[in-house]
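Q: Structure tokens for this one, please.
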Amino acid sequence: MSYDVEKPDEQWRAELTPAEYAVLRKAGTEPAFTGEYTDTKAEGVYSCRACGAELFTSTEKFESHCGWPSFYDPKDSDAVELIEDRSHGMTRTEVRCARCGSHLGHVFEGEGYPTPTDQRYCINSISLRLAPDES
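A: Here is the predicted structure, written as tokens:
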């Protein structure tokens, strides 16, 4: 797969903290209820911590009480790519940044949240950087 932003592994390791690298580049997961954006209510745009691509906005963020930031839709449908993930003995849909291929989290459907899409993009805080609105 080819991305607009591609870097050798050594460069990703140099630019990201070990925790960021483990999640963004090795598809790890931060512990539940520990991420800086889990309960954030600030308005703004959430971008990929690895490449800066705009991914989600506070408008689509909702309280799911799952331990990670949850969004019902990406900012633009082409901002993320969805990939079948069969790791850990289950089938899930991985969410990656469409610009650099970094792991963001997973998306789940049909859980009954009162959102317009009935989807929950369960995203690691450490994969994101919030740019608060200036207002």
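A few notes: The helical segments are 9-15, 18-24. The first helix runs from residue 9 to 15.
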